[in-house]
Design brief:
- The structure is a single chain.
- This protein is an alpha/beta fold and about 260 residues long.
- It has one domain (about 10-190, about 220-240): Stationary-phase Survival Protein Sure Homolog, Chain: A (3-Layer(aba) Sandwich), CATH 3.40.1210.
- Helix content is about 25%, strand content about 25%.
- Helix 1 crosses helix 5.
Length: about 260
């Protein structure tokens, strides 16, 4: 149950890896007011989606510098980290899961590939409110501003998110000293697509392989989308539900359909 603004138990994770500045900055700021656990991949897991580790061991290394019972590096994916934290590493369920601060935005179609968003989705699967946090150009001064913003925001009226819903939050490029973001836009997912190119290369032994080079292409000009709003300097929030059923199609189909004889 949500305990209110005075004290919250938080689980932090990401897909950039345990040492990432975004994660560590967020943890340092939130520890000033709340109980924080950090369970994150031991290496970068960007674009890992909702992969989980099966038929291979998950190695866990506590970080004694932060307290051996609170911070852990995991040899697995972001979704692994959340599952393991909730089942074995934490003394009880967190009130909120924060995934990020990711180095790079997760807009539009990115949410299907992103390990950052998938870690938040795993929290929703387990009945825990969750937020994915991403930043366009995460310099240290920007990360400090974002962490302070998040610390205030999670104590406000929009929390916890509704049951079964995660917030996908993106921060634009900005100068914290001269021109910090002034408004939050609650928007739907826009259209971010990729122009993909597979470059053929040779390894050290002369064996060919392919290297994916993807260039994002954002559909601008559409009203009330994350892609459009972030281009205008807004912090964007998109509520995402894990039920991706298309109910309009179901509404025009029979509940049961007889299979014709072959």
């Amino acid at each position: 149950m949500w305990r209110g603004a005075s004290w919250i138990r938080l689980l932090l994770t990401n897909d950039d890896g345990y040492e990432a500045q975004g994660l560590q900055t967020l943890a340092a700021v939130l520890r000033l007011r709340h109980e924080v656990y950090v369970v994150a991949p031991d290496r970068e897991q960007s674009a890992s989606g909702h992969a989980i580790s099966v038929r291979r061991p998950l190695y866990v290394e506590p970080d004694p510098g932060q307290g051996p019972a609170t911070d852990f590096r995991v040899g697995g994916t972001p979704a692994d980290c959340v599952k393991l934290a909730l089942e074995r590493l934490m003394p009880g369920p967190p009130d909120l899961i924060l995934s990020g601060i990711n180095h790079g935005t997760n807009l539009g179609r990115d949410v299907f590939y992103s390990g950052t968003v998938s870690a938040a989705v795993e929290g929703i699967f387990q009945g825990i409110p969750a937020v994915a946090l991403s930043c366009h150009s995460p310099e240290l001064s920007q990360l400090a501003w974002i962490a302070a913003f998040v610390g205030r925001w999670i104590e406000g009226p929009h929390f916890p998110p509704p049951l079964g819903v995660l917030y996908n939050v993106n921060f634009p490029a900005f100068d914290p000293a001269r021109n910090p973001p002034r408004q939050v836009a609650w928007v739907r997912l826009g259209r971010r697509e990729y122009r993909n190119r597979f470059e053929r290369r040779l390894d050290a032994e002369g064996r060919p392989y392919f290297w994916l080079i993807g260039q994002p292409w954002d559909r601008l000009g559409e009203v009330d989308t994350d892609v459009e709003a972030i281009s205008q300097g807004y912090v964007t929030v998109t509520p995402i539900h894990t039920d991706i059923t298309e109910y309009q199609v179901l509404a025009h189909k029979p509940e049961r359909e007889v299979i014709s004889q072959v």
